[in-house]
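SEVERITY: medium
COMPONENT: batch folding queue
REPORTER: lab tech (J.R.)

DESCRIPTION
The queue accepted two submissions in a row. Attaching both inputs and their returned structure tokens so the on-call engineer can compare them side by side.

ATTACHMENT 1
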Amino acid sequence: MSKKFQIFVSSTYEDLKSERDQVIKAALEMGHIPVGMEMFSAADEEQWKIIARQIDQSDYYAVIIAHRYGSVHEGVSYTEKEYDYALSKGIPVIGFVIEDGVHWPPVMIDTDHDARVSLERFKAKVKKKPVGFWKNSEDLHGKFSISLMKLIATNPRLGWARADEVAGPELARELTRLSSENAKLRDEIAILNKREEEHESNKDQDMIKILQKNKTRICYRKDERDAKWQDHKDTTLFSIFSAIAHKLISEASIISIRQELAFKFFNYESHRHYPIPRNYVDHWINDFSCLGLVMPSRKKHSVNDDNDYWALTENGFRVHSSLRRLELEVGTEIDVNDEPDDDL
């Protein structure tokens, strides 16, 4: 009798989408049933009941860890909570931890001290059990397949079989029950996902309102160092952020931020360092940092480069994306009079 096994795949969400997809793909290629974390968005006790029920029904549990600890509830992340729960239920677990030294996007790395400490403690816990180390999603695909085959061989589980391969009316009743439960579960997941999307949207709208209600002033001067500051304008933090956010997706120096503001507010294109007051820009960057929208860039630069570089945080990128999406929905026009530009 051929059996399929249900594999619960656990990880943080945004930073490990492609890696989790590869693990789910590997499980499907082996003929098994993966339960992907994209079905859930950990946020409250109601969701935990759904997740715990899925772990209860799973034959094996796999956890993928990179450089984020994840959403915390009552002092522990949901990923670690799922791992502990699987162990408490006697479900065989396999862990996959990213190798040290592997290049990883800075925006996908925890910067909070407490989160880093908790992450290292969690990694140490996972390494007490069978664990594999991976470099990229393709490497993880192969190592997961091999580890799962070994785990199935050494820890056989009940699994699932076709109805026509198993006799008895009890199976038919169980399949009917599971079908009904599956339909109910899908409805619950849809409601929870919608609630989570509304929550994130509300957070973005609240941030936009904060930026809009904070007034400031901006002025500029031309390249001559002895020129006076001129053309003072009233504006808001919202307008300042909207003007420079696209520059901060990767990173931008304070110099390039000042130049971009001069162009956006005064249509003045400067190739020097000082079109906008430095103390104004420092004050705005400090405000954006306090609001969790920007952070110092983590990219490495030459030792001779004494410029300050800033980049969007994950929250900052989400707010920028929301603003840009609204612009695109209304309709925008690219200035075809702009000269082509290339940094090569």
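ATTACHMENT 2
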Amino acid sequence: MKKFCTHCLEEREVRCSTRQDTIMVRGEPIVVDSEVAYCRTCENEVFDTNMAEKTLKSAYEIYRKRHGLLSPQEIRDIRNKYGLSHRALSRLLGWGPVTTQRYEQGALQDEAHDSILRQMRDDPLFVLKHWEKNKDRLSEFESRKLERHLCELCSRIGADSLVKAFQKEEVLAFGRNPGACGFRVFDLPRTGEVVLFFATRVRDLYETKLAKLLWIADFANYLACGKSMTGLTYARLPYGPAPHRFRILLALLEESEVITLESREAEAFSGTVVQPKKSTSFSSLTSDEVQILERVTAKYGHLSSKRLSDMSHRESIWADAVEGSLLTYRDACSVDMVTSIFPPGQSEM
């Protein structure tokens, strides 16, 4: 093998040998076995970029193990777990555009970044919170892809622990802004009963349609008694109002064996249909709440998802809102789709 010798000033045959070197990594001496090349003519060391990089990576590997840092492969696995590109992960976390790419290629991460990556590995809800906070940094394709992976992870994790974590986040959200939840703390079993009410009475209940029915029912209940029915918050999304983190919610209800989600494809459309998996007596709902659900079903249950979306787009609460922003319950009285379920002159029960 020949390499350029800076002493002979020409290419020479070299011999390779291994020696121990001490490499300083963040002020800490790391002893590592290094492969080095020597000129066979003058016996001086010949610098080789690949050998130097290999030595540095070995030192970093020892440092990582000593300090319990993630390896490049572990970081790659975390990114792939959520279906994220390098750019998407960096945008999600607010890091530099090539940060994670450098880590996966062997650059040494700092402890703060390592801690964040470990939280991503261990806690999908941690990623969910970052996605909710920074989704505007991602493209629509990147955001939907991450959402799909989060839903899949929900189905693999123990339902009880994930439900508790999800509800804890909702309780904290209520504490920060109770009005956004309709002044009711989110409760998954109660929400499940509302979803089951529609699922047992509405044929072909596509998720887009369910989102509109839940929105109308919650806002109508708020208008009637000053509280929402489920404690859900609603956002302004392209197909109309929908519960915040709706697909995650549906995944939790499916994992809790309340509903089943069935993908359907037809010539003109495709989507996910929500079907009941268990029966219930709706014992957590009051008679007035059941009456509201019956009125919503009677007025809107027979309409298509597209028709409901088009109708919601004509409401000022949606048309005047910024994409992704939360819709406020206090505007319920101005929503025709909500007020029209009540008899003329009646908005309170």
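NOTES FROM REPORTER
The chain has a mean pLDDT of 89.
No errors were logged for either attachment.
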